[in-house]
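hey
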């Protein structure tokens, strides 16, 4: 029997990269799934079919979780389909690169909408069900932005730091209802970049030896390794872990 047998998990950002790996890992561990992506229904359906082959029941939906109206419409559909959501896994993220003086108002607000507001919308929608059933695990993918400052990331740093603050607030207020909230702070992971123009230094798409110099393990992580951490936080093995941040970065910034 899997670690998540009998649970239903909502994975936002499930169409590729870390979200895809997490969805598949949850399916292997016995969870049923609500899979959400903003676009590319074909890619999301591919993930859904893989999860179904692993034995999961799956509902896949195109939803922009940075828009509260779309989240409000989606959640009743998910709850009616499965009855409850036990695990909320938010993989939504935007990592634009601009010098502070070049950040437009539109980019500032868009970054906050994706990185921070989306978790607020999702949690607000699913928390009443978790409180009613006296169980739940809320997990967000963050980044090293919540640990250290980086150039050309003012909007990302501010929104990701706020994300960790929201996780701690959720953990404190929802603890009496046996609902936990934690953040996974990611380092360099072998993911396909949706906006390669933000990474002109990586013309080959991968990380260089110089990029990895500060990583103790001297390599980038794999989405499957991120998924292993997510399974731990979603399962009862982490039943006394809440309001915390697990750094999945291969030893960078120790």
């Amino acid at each position: 029997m899997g670690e998540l047998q009998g649970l239903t998990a909502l994975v936002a950002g499930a169409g590729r990269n870390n979200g895809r790996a997490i969805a598949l890992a949850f399916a292997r561990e016995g969870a049923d799934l609500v899979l959400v992506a903003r676009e590319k229904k074909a890619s999301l359906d591919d993930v859904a079919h893989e999860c179904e082959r692993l034995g999961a029941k799956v509902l896949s939906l195109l939803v922009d979780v940075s828009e509260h109206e779309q989240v409000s419409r989606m959640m009743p559909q998910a709850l009616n389909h499965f009855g409850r959501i036990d695990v909320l896994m938010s993989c939504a993220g935007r990592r634009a690169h601009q010098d502070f003086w070049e950040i437009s108002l539109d980019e500032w607000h868009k970054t906050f909408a994706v990185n921070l507001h989306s978790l607020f919308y999702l949690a607000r929608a699913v928390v009443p069900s978790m409180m009613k059933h006296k169980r739940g695990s809320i997990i967000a993918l963050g980044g090293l932005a919540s640990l250290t400052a980086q150039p050309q990331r003012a909007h990302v740093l501010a929104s990701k730091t706020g994300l960790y603050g929201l996780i701690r607030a959720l953990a404190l207020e929802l603890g009496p209802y046996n609902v936990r909230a934690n953040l996974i702070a990611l380092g360099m992971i072998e993911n396909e970049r949706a906006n390669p123009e933000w990474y002109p230094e990586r013309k080959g798409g991968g990380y260089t030896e110089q990029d990895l110099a500060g990583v103790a393990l001297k390599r980038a992580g794999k989405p499957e390794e991120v998924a292993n951490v997510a399974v731990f936080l979603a399962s009862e093995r982490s039943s006394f872990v809440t309001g915390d941040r697990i750094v999945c970065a291969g030893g960078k910034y120790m």
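Strands lie at 8-12, 32-37, 58-62, 87-90, 136-141, 179-186, 244-248. Confidence is low (pLDDT under 50) at residues 198-203.
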